[in-house]
Amino acid sequence: MKSRGVMICLAASLVLAGVWASGVAFSSKTIHIGMVVSDLPASVAFYKDVVGMVQVDRTSFDIDSEFGKRSGLTDGSPFHVEVLKLGSGEEATQLKLMSFGDKARKAAENEFIHSQTGIQYLTFLVENITPCLENIRKHGIKLLGETPTGLGDGKLFALIQDPDGTFVELIGPAR
Asked: Which of 51, 81, 106 delimits the end of a domain?
């Protein structure tokens, strides 16, 4: 029995060593998410006014056609980016909303998360879901399914969609 425990520990060590041996050291614990939107002002308003993200001064920028093509991001189409953050700290998650003007294609209708491939939803963990629900109602946003619904741990789950159909989950206690 002891040798089995030693073997399990050895196997776990080898697996962890493989992960650590990858040589990747991230400079931040957060990721920045880029999302192409069809109506930039509507999307900025949604994520600020309904979800509660913060638009930080001097965080919008333009990508010119030359860099778009050279970087492989676009076929040479220029675009504009507005950056929103979850709070103001250095490690706050950033949502980069990108506009291509008239070149943006409208996404297929998203009825459910399995309606198409790719990133389908964003989850926001909140300290108090009550103000979120008030914002949703105030802005006439439709709650999906039978939400808000309890998760059984004192938290509620609410599901909405942004102006382009991306699902947005809000999870937190009601206080």
From this structure: 106
